[in-house]
Amino acid sequence: MKAKLATSALIVATLLAAVPAYAHHSFAAEFDGSKPTRLVGKITRVEWTNPHSYFYVDVSDSKGKVSNWGCEGAGPGALSRRGWKKGDLKIGDSIVVDGYRAKDGSHLIDARRVTLPDGRSVYGGSPGDGGPGDNGTVQGNLPGTGKS
Predict the structure, then answer these.
(1) In which domain, by residue range, is 60 found?
(2) Which of 4, 110, 125, 145 minimizes the number of CB atoms within 10 Å of its CB?
(3) 108-115 and 121-123 as β-strands: parallel, antiparallel, unpaired?
(4) How far apart are CA 30 and CA 90, in angstroms?
(5) CB 88 within 8 A of CB 9
(6) Is residue 96 one of the residues assigned to a domain?
(7) Is 138 domain-assigned?
(8) How many Cβ atoms sit within 10 Å of the Cβ of residue 32?
(9) What is the CATH number of the domain that holds 95?
(10) How many domains does the chain contain in total?
(11) What are the phi and psi torsion angles at 2 (to 5°)?
(12) The predicted structure's pLDDT at residue 14
């Protein structure tokens, strides 16, 4: 009986451990490193969630047409260790986001460098995702984010 219980517990633990691994993806799986993009706009929504945080920015083109872009960043823990707090982005704030477009052409970018309203630039990439600036550490090494 104890062996069955131990086996069942091991199976459940293995399945639960696989869920976060499945949810996380490499940079190259979704984004195109040859398509750098800069967005300048106003925050419309912030999702401080795991395994990735998301925030959304209204961006106006040269003709005044507004498009809403999703910006994917690292999880809240990694961002907090870089000095970035949930309250740093507020609805209506103007920000600059440097990142790379989604391969599917949607209005989604991987937010590698985010210039916050107070002027700080923060590395937004996920540690170990293999994208630009990733050196396997939570701080990354993207130029202009205060870390080298």
Answers:
(1) 26-123
(2) 4
(3) antiparallel
(4) 27
(5) no
(6) yes
(7) no
(8) 17
(9) 2.40.50.140
(10) 1
(11) -65, -35
(12) 43
